[in-house]
Amino acid sequence: QVRLVESGGESVQAGHSLKLSCIASGRAFETYVMGWFRRAPGKEREFVAVDRRSDGNVKYADLCKGRCTFSRDNAKNMVYLQIDDLEPEDTDVYYCAAESVYEGNLFYQTEEEDYGDWGQGSQGTVSS
Question: Which of 5, 19, 44, 84 has its C-alpha lying 20 to 30 A from 63's C-alpha?
Fold first, then answer.
């Protein structure tokens, strides 16, 4: 189990970028798949991006439209999500999530129920 804390949420104007960070406490961070999700008020939490443990490849949701960049630094127990060219529709609470998986795992964990550990969320607000 890991404890996750997001940061970086802020109020920005449309067209600008948002860079979110998530730090994990606990051991063996490199064994965890890390995902980013977001939720708007009154809506379901939706998948944004996730990496894959077997090869480090990243899967992005269609909502990214080429604007998202996922990265991680295992030495610092950190993951990041940058969203460029922001739109007001990107106004959401952004969450990072973690789940320990075996080294050869070939699947992308894109569902909420795939994760056991969640951060508290970080609010990003985009104004037009």
Answer: 5
- pLDDT, one tens digit per residue, over 33-47 is 999 999 998 999 999
| Alpha carbon of residue 1 to chain centroid | 17
Please give the Cα distance from 58 to 27 (Å, whole number). 22
By residue count, the chain amounts to 128
Closest to 50 in 3D by CA, of 31, 30, 72:
72
In angstroms, rounded to a whole number, what is the distance separating the alpha carbons of residues 80 and 71?
5
pLDDT at 97: 98
| Strand pairing report for 92-100 and 78-83 | unpaired
33 has which bridge partners? 99
Q: Could you say which DSSP state residue 77 is in?
A: T
Res 104 pLDDT > 90: no
* Torsion 68-75-9-54 (CA) sign: positive
In degrees rounded to 5, what are phi and psi of residue 90? -85, 0
